[in-house]
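Appendix B. Raw example, untouched.
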Amino acid sequence: MQNEGDKKQKNKLKRPVKGLLIFLLIVAFIGILFKFILFPPYDAPKVSGEHVVLTKEYTWVDESREETFTDSGENRELTVKFWYPKEEGSYPLVVFSHGAFGVIDSNYSTCMELASNGYVVASIGHTYHAMYLKNVEGKVFLADKDFMKSVFVGNGVYDPELEKQVYENSLAWMELRTADENFVLDTILEKAERGEEGPFGLIDSDKIGLMGHSMGGASSVQLGRERTDIDAVIDLEGTMLGEYVGFENGIEIYNEEPYPVPVLDVFGTRLYDEIKMPAEFEEEHPGWQYVNFYVGDHAVDYMAVAFRDTGHLNFTDLPLISPVLAKLMGVGKVDAKSCIENVNAVVLNWFDHYLKGESKLDIKPEY
């Protein structure tokens, strides 16, 4: 039989255990509440296609390139996520590139919509450009701090003293991004030619589209010019940085060769106000055009589509997944769900027309 001293000693031992348990419960509750606030449940856009969609992720190492964001000498690796129909068949390939600080799932609903309608979609996670990226082995990569700083140089406002630096940063971004996309696309096509399992045996290599948001849209446009196997391109809110071929008298020089591939330029109507330059700039550079509109005036096949009351992030799923984060980073007054559903419908119509030849273009100039 236990004496009173033994009971008191056991109670003393239990108190720290109970205190730790209460502390862990409080931490867990705060964590759940924090997650609920940042990532509340949401009503995801429904897909319009009849295909059952499967997903698969791969991490590939580009043996031809050393990783420049580290000093440990390893080769650059990229993680790629696929959405593709479960049913056997031959489907066009669409490669997606996220924006600066984006994520591999930034346009999840867009990829789902395309795959459900008979496309193989590959989204590239650009290592150290993505805000957060996890490879297939579970290793996590965060956005590089110096890259983040470079994106905010100039902060989207014309500053003659900073414009050369902005131009040089743009060249560096496009060099990395297009190398990433070329490597991923070439790897996919090699696997498709071998008929490997998963999404690769389903790909029609003669029908390829490129798409991206922001910086990813810019690099997709550049790749569409440089490669001969691309059939259509979509740029979601991306300044076409790859069309810069030089820098003189404080401004970028644009590529004068007509853009050769059908390109859809999707952006917010606020852009019409944001691209207005100071009077002294217009006096010094008469006839200047925003690069996207210059490309449009000299392209073989170009269409511009503007969305009212949108912010930069309204062309991704982030306003649905995390309204709080999206608001901090830039959204408009538009209903987030209806906006991305309209964007997805426009994307599908464009690729159906140019990659499948199945539908007439039914895209309005403004939404």
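End of appendix B.
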